[in-house]
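Two proteins follow. First one:
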Amino acid sequence: MTRRTRRTALASGLTALALVAALTSGGCSAERRDTLVVLGPWTGAEGIAFEAMLKRLDDGTGKTYAYRGTRSLRETLVAQLEAGDPPDVAVLNSLGELTEYARGNRLEPLDTPGHPPWAPRIDVNGSRHTYWVPLKVDLKSLVWSKKNKGSEGNKGGAGNPRWCVGLASQATSGWPGTDWIEDLVLHRSGPDVYARWASGRLSWRSAAVRGAWTAWARLLGERSKKSVDLSLTTSYEGTRDPDAERPRPRGLLNSPELDCTHEHQSAFIRYLYANAKGKGGAKEGGGVRVDPSARFLPGPAAHDGAYEVAGDMAAAFRGGPAARELVERLSGGAARRLWHEEAEPELRPFFPGAGDPRPTDPGGDEVAAILTGGAKALCFDASDAMPPALRDAFHRAVLRYFRDPSAARLDTLLGQLDTVRAETGGGTLAPDLLCAPPAPG
């Protein structure tokens, strides 16, 4: 949201094109000598909190840090690189993009040790280095449900969830569906198969991958054309009803049009369900709780301890030692403490270390416990680990399959994805870099 980390829907007053132009025409170079510029995906309340942390972090460094937030991150960064004026530091959630930038000599190597699955050491020009660090992380293998519905799973045939589906997300529409496929591959086939597929070593037409697509269709059940069209045009955040006497909050679970009880979505969505409660049940007066998705997904119980995760990583594109130092400071304890202090409770980030500050909103502490020790394996978001062209093709294929989940359509889509896999080399990282147990400390 990122792609899959949330992009707060507060208007910036600029179109994406105007924003790119504003950020590329002197947005960095005018301040180059005295200011280190960080380009990132957070706007609205998230961007305000990150910027406040950054301003507090620059005290006593002799450098000024400035934040430039955009909801068109990839387009902005590509435009700046083509203009020869990249930011000093950029924050991305795609390991595939970061690896391509590193191997294209766009990134500066760091002195920090590897931190899989968030920031592994990779081979570039015959030597191994870390090129980015995790700033914030997210847990994806979760299901949010209406009060008194959260304990009903469908493993073993129990329960009958009515699944919320909102696949629209501007240029990256489809990613909520790819999250479903990825989680199903992980829970049905385990981390080893998942990592081979995510790294391009396993065919899209293999039984493990194909089975995940058909399992998704079975879980969602029969859907009318009206329901399908609604899901394809509904934002993953849901929508408000401006004509209602008391406008309902956003969130797919709050949408009467979708008429659903369960939502498969990562932990960032908790800002829409601030009253969410963990496994103890829904908070009195609240309406939503959160549970591990393994309770609802088919697959061996041995894989229930594996979780799909995502993260926002910082890399130095230019700026020399000062930029590299900033990247390392951004992932340090002081920055995490300040960020936690500046963010609203439901927007407080998750961090990868057990000793880092944890969100205190209901459900947030439980999610943090899984990320920092409760999981057996954390596997990085498969599409974010793929080359960008393959990731984008995956997004489009999910949208087409959702409209027509026939066997013939699936055969065509998986064949096309295998073709893109061959054209792009399939993967950017080795399988053993994509899954790891939670890091100690």
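Second one, unrelated to the first:
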Amino acid sequence: MTVTLMCGPSGSGKTTWAADLEGAGAVRLSFDVELWRRGSRPLTATPELMQEVDAELRTRLVYLVRAGRDVVLDLTFSTRAMRQEWRALVLPLGVVPETVHLDVPHDELRRRLTARSDTAADDVALTPEQIERHLAEFEPPTAEEGPLRVVRVDPLA
């Protein structure tokens, strides 16, 4: 059984990667999908709704791991503290999550995010100011945090 933490700024391709794992049998958990299903978006959701979704996703993660299911967490995991909190949920269950960090050049991220249509949970548009703040606040994961796979995305390849 595996738990994968998808890590990278918005637009890095986390959902595409997570969908591939989902196609191979993992259960995908996503804030964006849950918020969209409830008629909200990550940047406009109330703190109460964010807390509710967070609690539900954490509960589902533990339930799925106890049931022996592979899980991919399709979240940004933008801070070390956030990654540590989610790892701590499954470590007592004998699972050491792997972090998959999609490392994409910032110019490519800006291009992708600017092209979003805001018509689906995984296509939420950001303003230029939100994009810059998101990129500035993102803390790349390090090997000291636990198993880490860094995928460098070359947009010209």
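SUMMARY FIELD: Residues 3-152 form a domain with the Rossmann fold fold (CATH 3.40.50.300). The radius of gyration is 15 Å.
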